[in-house]
Amino acid sequence: MKKLFYILTAALLTSCMMEDDFLDKKPLNTLSEEAVFNSAALAESFINAAYSVLPDPYQEGNISSITDESYFRYGGTSTRYIASGQMTPSNVIYMDQGGAAHNSRTTVLNIWNRAYESIYNLNYFLKYVNEKGSEIDQVSKDRLVGEAYCLRAWSYYNLIQGYAGVPIIKTPHNLDSEFGVKRSNFDDCVDFILEDLVEAEKYLPTKDECRQGRLNKDVALAIRARVTLLAASKLFNNPTSPDGSSRNPEGDIFYGKYDYEGKWQRAFEASQAMVDRADKDGAYSL
Asked: Is 247 buried (19+), middle (13-18) or exposed (0-12) by CB count in 10 A?
C-alpha cells in the first residue's frame, strides 16, 4: 500500500511539474517585448512602423482636390465632400472609427487618433529602452532612440497645426492611467516638441553617417525651423483675434503668448542653422 502511495505521489508531482513547464512556455504566435527591444532588427522594425506618421502626397485622392486646384471624380466620402462644403466635425471621422470619411483618401485630415496611436508606440519604446535598457549595440540603440524622439516631435507638430494645444502624453497608458488628460497651452506644446528635437539631435546620426531614407540630425534641424516658424506666425502669435477683439497676452490653448520679436528671432535662428548646413558646411546644394 505504501509503495502504491509513493508511486501516486511521484506521478502527481511529475504531472504538476510538467504542467508548470507547459504553462511557462512562451507563445509561438507573438513576440514578447524582451524579444523585440533586445533585437536590433526587430526594434528597427518597430520604429519603422512609426514612420507612417510621415505624410504620403501620392494618395489616390490628392489633397489639392480639397481646393479648386484639381478635381477628384470619385470621392463622395473623400475630397469631393470637403470641396463641396459638406464636411462637419461628425463626418470627418474615418469609417473604420465610426464616421463617414474615407479611410485612405482623407488621411491628411483627421490625424488625431492615428497620431496618438503612433505617440503611444513611441512612448512605449522610449520607456522600455530608458528604464529596462536593451542588449542591442549602442550605435543602433542610439539611432533608434533618436528616431523615436524625432517622430514623436513630428507627430505633435502635425497635431498643433490642426488643433493648437493638445494633451501632452509622455508615457504609455496602462489600466491605471489617468485618461482624462487636458489639453496643454499652445506654447507648452511647442516647448515640448522642441525638447524632443534636442533629445533627437543627441542620438541621431549625421547626414553622412545615415542610411538614405532614415532620419538624421538635419531632419531634426528642419523640423525645428518649421515648428518655430509656425509658433511665430500671426495664426498663433497675434495680440488680437480675427474679429478684432483682444487676446490674453499670456496665451492659452489656442494661441501662444504674444512675443513678436522673441518668437521671430527664435524662428530666424532655427532656419539659419539649417541654411548654414548648406552654405557653410556644404552639406546641400541646388
From this structure: middle
Residue pointed to by grid coordinates 513611441: 122
Per-residue cell: 250: 499670456
Q: How far is CA 281 from CA 178, 181, 222, 284, 285, in A?
A: 47, 43, 15, 8, 10
Q: What is the pTM of this model?
A: 0.81
Residue 15 falls in which region: left (phi positive, over 0), alpha (psi -120 to 50) or beta = alpha
Q: List, for residues 221-242, the tens digit of each pLDDT value.
A: 999 999 999 999 999 999 888 7
Helices and strands counted in the chain (H then E): 9, 0
The count of residues in the chain is 286
| DSSP for 229-248, written as a single string | HHHHSTTTS-SB-TTSPBPP
Give the ranges where 164-234 is alpha helix by DSSP (H). 186-203, 217-232
pLDDT in tens, 67-87: 778 887 776 777 777 777 777
CA-based nearest residue to 116, from 153, 185, 169, 164: 169
